[in-house]
Amino acid sequence: MASLIRWEPLDDLVSLRDAMDRLFEDSFVRSRRVPAARRLQGLPVDVYETEESVVVKTVIPGVKPEDIDVSITDNVLTIKGETKVEEKVEKDHYICQECRYGSFQRSVALPKTADADQAEASYENGMLTLTVPKKAEAKPKTIKVEAKAR
């Protein structure tokens, strides 16, 4: 004889908590499991704004300044370059290989207030610093308030 089991339609629905748990796991937890090779593809950059300019800093050790290409097109800053192997070592002799060789590229959107025509770049001890001044109309203007005598 077959037994009957009562069907509860709400049991088939995913609870809100389960859905939120899955959302956070998919968004944050799994993103940490990305292989190291994929995480290191882009250059790490620091971008900050002062009253006068937008400053972009990135670390590019072991690259000659002439091997770095910096361009700004439509307020998008692009940094390109290539690290070259200095010494050829056979793969069989490596114990650990973490240094990356090859080309790299990173693009960063700049604020519309940045004046690309006046941008300056400096490279010292592996640190590339780009300073992009703000357009004159974008700089804050101070207006002095004067009191009138009665």
Describe this structure in words.
Strand 6 and strand 7 form a beta hairpin. This protein has helices at 16-29, 36-39, and strands at 45-49, 53-59, 68-73, 76-83, 102-109, 120-124, 127-133. The longest helix has 14 residues, at 16-29. Helix content is 12%, strand content 31%. By secondary structure, the chain is mainly beta.
Keyword list:
150 residues, mainly beta, Immunoglobulin-like, four-stranded antiparallel sheet, three-stranded antiparallel sheet, flat
- Most strands sheet: 4 strands, antiparallel
What is the element string, with H for helices and E for strands? HHEEEEEEE
How does the overall form come out from the CA principal axes? flat
Report the structural category.
mainly beta
Q: Give the CATH architecture of the domain at 42-138.
A: Sandwich
Proportion of strand residues: 25-35%
Which CATH C-level class of the domain at 42-138 is it?
Answer: Mainly Beta
**Helix count, DSSP H or I runs of 4 or more residues:** 2
Q: What Rg, in angstroms, do the CA atoms define?
A: 27 Å
First and last CA, distance: 104 Å
Assign a percent range to the helix content.
10-25%
For this structure, the CATH topology of the domain at 42-138 is Immunoglobulin-like
Uncertain runs are 31-40
Give the spatial strand order of the biggest sheet.
1-2-7-6
**Could you report the average pLDDT, rounded to the nearest whole number?**
80
Beta-strand segment tally: 7
Secondary structure topology:
Blueprint: H1 16-29, H2 36-39, E1 45-49, E2 53-59, E3 68-73, E4 76-83, E5 102-109, E6 120-124, E7 127-133
Antiparallel strand pairs: 1-2, 2-7, 3-4, 4-5, 6-7
